Model the fold of this input.
Amino acid sequence: MPLRQVCFDNDWSKFLCQRKQAKLQWLKKPSQINANYRNYVRLETTRYYEGKRGNILKLKLVNLKRAVRTRVVETCIGTSINLRLITTLELT
Done:
């Protein structure tokens, strides 16, 4: 599932709507106050998206590490490698 599809939820659509309204307001009346408000809304929208994206990527990384650890254990069970060494792999 693409990352962009995951981030679209009710909060995300509210941020996008607010961002669009701020831009339209700035285009209709280009004042410094409207420009500052537009920049603030853009910054908040980006923070929300990047935070959501970071959480998704962290979850993917943990799942990937878990899969690699599982694969290493499954591969080494039939070999002569000491299993004590494998249990020291951490999911950090």
Residues 3-86 form one domain. Residues 20 and 47 are 16 Å apart (CA to CA).
